[in-house]
Every structure is written in C-alpha cells, then in structure tokens.
C-alpha cells in the first residue's frame, strides 16, 4: 500500500508538471491502479489534477510590489496635480479680481506680454479702448488687457506698433496700437480695431 502511494505521488507530480492526464482503474485483484495511459478493456477514469502552482520567482516577487508602488505613485501624482491646478485657478481668480479693482480705481493697467508703453501710456490706451467700445455696449464695464505683442518697430526712434488683445466682457478683441513721438513732446498713439 505504501509502495502504491509513493508511485501515485510520483506519477501525480510528473503528470502535473508535464500537463499530462492520469488515469485510475481497479484491477482484477481489487487494487486501485494509476497510470498515464488508460488500460485497454477496463473502466479507467481520467483524474482531474490541478497543476501545482509554482511560487513566483524572486524577480517576479520584486516586480509585483513595484507595480503596486507605481500605481500608488501615479495616483498620488494625479491628486497632487489636481490640487496644484485648483490652487493655481484660485490664485488666478484672486489676481484677476484684484487687477479689475485696481483698474476701476484707476491705479494701474495690468499688461501681459511685451509693451514699450509706460504705465500711464498703457492706462491712456486702455481708456481710449473703453471709450470706443462703451458707445457700442454701454452696459459692459469689464475690460482687461490679456496680452500685448510688439509687431512692428519703425526706423524712427520711439515709433512702434503693438497688437493688444483686450477682454471686453468675456470677448477677446484685438487692437492695433501705433505709438509715435508727439511733436509737443511725449508719445501719441492711434488705436484701431483689427
């Protein structure tokens, strides 16, 4: 009996590793037999043997936690970026509100981009734009300079052309602003809608 059990174990291990089928039958003497081939003229039954799961190699085991850590790191990075974006949006809104309040008080004109105009000259240009537009839409009082861009520099000193993009109550409108020396001293400008 012990001998049969040992043979069975050897066959089961060999079959499991090889992926082969094991057959079971009872011989004429009533002894249960196991084999990898079915016996002819007998009622042999195939046994379903679950293949033994081989433990992961040390290299695989090291990779599994790494993937888990990668997923955690990615999730952390996404949460961090979302928080950063939320903070940036809040700061941007606060800056815009402060800029609008300063413009209404006449304290300053926030200009993005590059402009050769001094701050008082920028304020004068924005006031001219507001005057031009207020005739078309008197209920719109929210004007903000989004961007300025130097598009042309003349050979004459202190003469240049800029493109100003202004947010007029939620609508971005471009203006061409030409600066030139004034015959009376200082700088004159011409504002044209593009």
UniProtKB/TrEMBL annotation:
> What are the DUF4124 domain coordinates in residue numbering?
11-61
Q: Where is the composition biased (Polar residues)?
A: 36-45
Instruction: Give me the stretches of Basic and acidic residues compositional bias.
Output: 59-81, 89-108
Q: Which domain of life is it from?
A: Bacteria
Where are its TM segments located?
A: none
> Per its UniProt record, what InterPro entries does this chain match?
DUF4124
Region ranges (Disordered): 36-119
Protein name per UniProt: DUF4124 domain-containing protein
Q: Which organism is it from?
A: Aromatoleum tolulyticum
